[in-house]
Amino acid sequence: MINIALDGPAGSGKSTVAKIIAKDLDILYLDTGAMYRACGLKCKKEGVSVKDEEKVRPIIENIDLKIEYKDGAQVTVLDGVDVSSEIRKPEISMLASDVSALKCVRLKMVEMQRKIAGKMDCVLDGRDIGSFVLPKAEYKYYVTADSKIRAERRYKELTERGETVDFDALHEEIKRRDYNDSHRDFAPLTKAADAKVIDTSEMTARQVADTIISDVKKG
Ligand code: DC
């Protein structure tokens, strides 16, 4: 069983890299951030503050969230509806970061992630995969880059998708999320002690993926 844990802050290139790895190695890609984004969206739809754990708990306990695959791509299905595009909106990013700080949310999502990873070869990207979700994963990487470069990547991704975004606001949001994600009490964003660090600031996604793929092929 191959489990590749790919952690790092927002915009570090994890998802692009993970998709290349999954395709080249013909394994599954699980985008765990999409799951927290769906939790944030669900709370928004229910009109509940993502900081109110007592109100969030029953919603997440009963959440109808499914991860499906269509033509090799992950489809995030909430209450029977494909929300894959909706959860990418910048307004959902901070909601996801806040809701993901709640222990009840993490425990539920981590249980789903472990079930998927236990069944098949896969690469998972997130914040706590190597440190908490799959501490025994054989391959662990922590990818990072300067926050301005990460904001530039997000800016390009969003504008290419037709979204109107303010660069400075995006950069601030990335820095706020970095702080939020790495300072929560439970399973924060952190480099697992045995993870290899890759600074992607000067690398293309292809180069990062090739570094990981050759490492995995070495066994
Ligand atoms: O990777 P992303 O930007 O889609 O993730 C959205 C938020 O979800 C991120 O700010 C923190 C949270 N997250 C997390 O806490 N743990 C994960 N494994 C993945 C994401």
Describe this structure in a few short sentences.
The chain is of the alpha/beta class.
Structure write-up:
The protein has 219 residues and is an alpha/beta fold. It has one domain (3-214): P-loop containing nucleotide triphosphate hydrolases (Rossmann fold, 3-Layer(aba) Sandwich). The protein is 52% helix and 17% strand. It contains nine helices and eight strands. It has helices at 14-25, 32-46, 53-61, 90-99, 103-119, 129-133, 147-160, 167-183, 205-218; strands at 3-7, 28-31, 65-70, 73-78, 81-82, 122-126, 139-144, 196-199. The protein has a five-stranded parallel sheet with strand order 2-6-1-7-8, sandwiched between helices. A hairpin with a 2-residue loop joins strand 4 (73-78) and strand 5 (81-82). The longest helix has 17 residues, at 103-119. 2'-deoxycytidine-5'-monophosphate binds at residues 10, 32-33, 36-37, 93, 96-97, 100, 126-129, 177, 181.
Helix content: 40-55%
Regarding quaternary structure, how should these chains be classified? single chain
User: What's the CATH first level?
Assistant: Alpha Beta
Indicate how many domains the architecture comprises.
1
Strand order of the largest sheet: 2-6-1-7-8
Mean pLDDT: 96
- Quick one: overall form? globular
The main β sheet shows up as: 5 strands, parallel
Question: What CATH architecture do you see?
Answer: 3-Layer(aba) Sandwich
State the end-to-end CA separation. 12 Å
CATH level-four homologous superfamily name: P-loop containing nucleotide triphosphate hydrolases
Ligand set:
2'-deoxycytidine-5'-monophosphate
Structural class estimated from helices and strands: alpha/beta
Order of helices and strands: EHEHHEEEHHEHEHHEH
CATH topology: Rossmann fold
Number of helices: 9
What is the strand tally?
Answer: 8
Sheet-strand content, in percent, reads 15-25%
Low-confidence parts:
none
